[in-house]
Fold this protein.
Amino acid sequence: EQAMHSWYLRSRHDFIVNLAAKALAGRNPADCRILDAGCGSGGVTTRLLRKGYNVVACDMDEESIRQGLATGRLKDVHRLDVAQLPFEDNSFDLVVCSEVLEHVPDDAQALRSLLRVAKRDVLFSVPAHMYLWTQSDTTLGHRHRYSKADVRALIGKAGAGIVKVHAYGIMPAAGTLAYKALSKPPQQTNEQDVPNAMKFRVPPAIDKMLWALSSLELSASGLGLVPWGFAWWAIARKIPA
């Protein structure tokens, strides 16, 4: 729960929602049905709802769903595997899948499942670069970090077209490199370990400043102006049969 309030996650959730709004530009939000696939405890979902979109949320993790319901971030939520969605074909005007595919054993099958239920586009994000791998990735259950070529190959393997693939998150990427350079690698995995984002408490004033800087950089990423970062965002488009 603490991580939900960090400057990076807040700015990232805002960013994903802004990208979704751009993908649906010119349409009445109330007429747009969005699937937030792998919603966690609802950071993206609640922001989409505030903008007036009709949102269906799903996740596999019971604890995340419980937290989301308890805080009111989640309402219409289902416990589902994103690789085996039960919804009908072409059910959603947009599918959003933020920081999920790296957890899935068969990410291409998961993306195919998302594309099947989308009318056209799937907006997704995944962590970048194996050289940024830390114990946090292990703790979070990540199976992959992706190069840009990996993201493009994943979209192709899922049978979709590539609309956009761009980097974002310069500050967390730089911070991760510094952390890796200055810290000793753990001798063993600790089941009680937590992600790096939850290890360091940032004073509110600094948190607000970092959020503002991150938001500025993410705006540039939305225009495709960020050459490197902690993650990729991409839009995969269904190829008509």
Notes: The two ends are 43 Å apart (CA to CA). The chain has eight helices and seven strands. The chain has a mean pLDDT of 92.
